[in-house]
Amino acid sequence: MDFQIREAITTNVTGDSAAAFEDTISDAIARGEEHLLPGLGVFLEAWWKDASETEKNAFTTKLEKHFVS
């Protein structure tokens, strides 16, 4: 992902409330448009950097269960 995309997304959401983030994420998922995926990736990256090992393990376990074949 291009750094400029990260910077633009970060600038656009700086100062947003938790409710605004929830609305943004819910809207992006509901719309299902491919061009919104980088923004969700920036959110995931920011969360991942601050998450504890327990939170990361819980998240990856959920992903594993979701994508089981």
Automatic annotation (TrEMBL):
It comes from Lysinibacillus odysseyi 34hs-1 = NBRC 100172. Keywords: Sporulation. The gene is sspI. InterPro entries: SspI. It is found in: Spore core. The lineage of its organism: Bacteria, Bacillati, Bacillota, Bacilli, Bacillales. Belongs to the SspI family. Its main location: other. The keyword Membrane does not apply. Induction: Expressed only in the forespore compartment of sporulating cells. This is Small, acid-soluble spore protein I. The keyword Cell wall biogenesis/degradation does not apply. GO terms for biological process: asexual sporulation; sporulation resulting in formation of a cellular spore.
